[in-house]
Amino acid sequence: MSEVQPERASIRSVARRIRSVAILSGLLAASILSGCNSQPPIELDERFLLVGFRDDMGMPRELYKWTAPIRVHTEGATKDQRRMVREHAELLGRVTGLPVSVDPVDPNLVVLFGNEEELQPYLDDWAIGGDRLNWPGFFRSECFAGVAGPGHDPFAMAFILQDLPERKNRLCIVQEMTQALGLFGDIDGRSDTSFASWGGADRLTELDVVMLEILYDPRLRSGMSESVAMPIVRQIIAEELR
After folding, report:
1. Which residues, including other chains, have CB under 8 Å from residue 242's CB and lie 6 or more apart?
2. How far apart are the first and last CA of the chain?
3. What is the largest CA-CA distance in the chain?
């Protein structure tokens, strides 16, 4: 799987390129990946608001991020899927600064592969008030992730249908594992991000790396409201634009 190999200076490098376009166009942000020139730009702070303070249905939510090491485990996966999960977990660790390990005994990021019948028992475990969650109607998607609620240690499960086309399988692994770390919102129809229920990239893009690095800046904390956190987000971006 081909993915961005991020450096800690990626926010700065992206911001500098965005600034150079802004000088010419009057816009803060612009498409920076090849093939994205026809897509309207989204400012970095607006992009972070969309993915960091919205869920995948577009509803507002508080900031969420992990503070514990990532202990990943897969079930029902092929050899290639286990490799992709491991490699993406390692990439997420490099970007966020969180330690990463493979831990089948006490995992806190579980990636499940299977058909609807195999995944249904796990969905039932996530049901609220005993209601049965039904896969075909659950976001009408081939994959999704759930995270533990406030007050609990970080824990997430990603559900991915087996036997998906190769690109969709790769996109599901990248998207669900990444969004489980706190960037829940979707920006649909854009090839410059993997945070999309349709039309997204099948790899962690440079802009996705920037969003993760902003989220895992130590000045931002879980539970922050949009009104409290967004001035800090803009400060982080402004520092990199200097």
Report:
1. none
2. 34
3. 57
Instruction: Enumerate the domain spans of the chain.
Output: 1-64+186-242, 70-181
Q: What angle do CA 55, 56, 59 make, to 5 degrees?
A: 45
Stated length of the chain: 242
- Please, which residues have CB within 8 angstroms of residue 123's CB and are 6 or more apart in sequence? 132, 133, 134, 135, 138, 159
Q: Indicate the pTM of the whole model.
A: 0.81
Class of domain 70-181: alpha beta
* Per-residue model confidence as pLDDT tens digits over 87-98: 999 999 999 999
pLDDT at 87: 96
Output the CA–CA distances (angstroms, integers) from residue 106 to 30, 152, 178, 216, in the order listed. 42, 15, 20, 24
Amino acid at 107: P
Instruction: Specify the 3-state DSSP secondary structure of 100.
Output: strand
Pairing of strands 156-161, 143-147: antiparallel
